[in-house]
Every structure is written in C-alpha cells, then in structure tokens.
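Appendix B, record 7
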Amino acid sequence: MTDTQVSAAGPSAAADPPVESFGRLTSAAVSDAMDRLGIAGQVFALRRLSGSGIFAGRAVTLRYGPVGVDGGTVGDYIDDVPAGSVLLLANRGSTTGTVWGGLLSEVAAMRGVAATVIDGLCRDIDTARRVGYSLYARSEWMRTGKDRVRLEATGEPVDMGGVRAAPGDIVVGDGDGVVIVPRSREQEVLGVALEIERTESLILAAVKGGERLDAARSRLGYHALQTRKDR
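Structure tokens (predicted):
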C-alpha cells in the first residue's frame, strides 16, 4: 500500500461486536486467556504515555526503516485511518528519532482513532495528554524522525515488541500495556477472557461475603485460570 492507503481491514468499532466486547476487558484478563490458549500476544516494553482507561480496536499497521540513500518521509496517512482503529507503528524499537508528534495526536483524537502504539519513540507528549489521546511507546524524546526514518509499508504484518501483528487484529490496551489478539482466534480468546473475569468477580464477591481469599481462590480455581489446558 502507499502512504495514504490505510485500512483497518474490518468494520468500524461502532459495528464491530468483538471490539466492543474486548473494550470491556482488562489487558490482564486478555493476557491470561492468551496464555491458556498458547497464543503469544503480550507486547513487551511499550508503556502508556498518555490517555486513560481501556481501549480496543482493529489494527492499522505501518512499518518504518532507516531513510537510506534513496530518501523517504515519515508518511502522510492519518486522514485515511478509520475511526475506532488502533495504529501500530513498527519502528524496530529504534531510538534514532520519533515517528509521532503533536499534530498527529491532535488529528487522531479529532478523527476518533482509538490509540497509537509505537515500537519506537514519540514526541510532543504534553499535547497528547492535553487532548487525552491514548499513546504507547518505548519513550518520549523531542528529536524528529524526519530525514532519519521513513515509512516503508502500510497494511502488512509487522513486529510489535516481539509480537507479530496483522491488519485487522484486535488490539487491547490499558494502564498495564498492550495485547494483540489474532483475528483468527478472537472469539476463542474472548470467551476465555470473559470466563476469567467472571471467576475473579465471583472470588471478590465471596470475600466480601466473609470467605477467606485463599479458600475462595482454591474453590474457584484461581491459580489455574491461565494454565494451558493441553498440558
């Protein structure tokens, strides 16, 4: 795809029941469900720099690389990103320069983009915080990526903090970080995550009713909620 040909490879969040359901789950519950199912989806080393609460949306993928001798730009794509999508910017964890800044945070927030997740750096973090935009990266730094990195491809599978992500995968994030759910397994993961959250709610209700935490955990199988069932 070219810089402006960007797609979430799926329906908008408003008409996407799985996205709506994942948006009510914590990243911890989704992570535990993926552990039980043997799916690697926990993105490593990226932290929330702005925003709050839980987000969920379909992935829009972008891959970056060094400028090199043939030049290139950081890309113009934000005007074509569907509302409710999550932007995944794969920059190989590079600390050369940033691939996201204040103008993008402002416009993404205006367009209703759910979040941006960067395997690399961003800048203008005060702007992102001011508009309440959900932004995850390895860190913030002011040095631009212009003339240092370039947008190589959009709409292709990318590596995000050790996780392979494809356009249309479901991305869930909160204060603990980000998980990526393969589209082919989303219903399976959703069912297990909902079961885990129900079990934890039952444990809490039991403790509020006077039962000991260790007893409630034992009775309801807390310590094996994330254990793979084929072991």
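Remarks on this record: The two ends are 42 Å apart (CA to CA). Helices lie at 17-22, 27-37, 102-111, 125-131, 186-208, 213-220.
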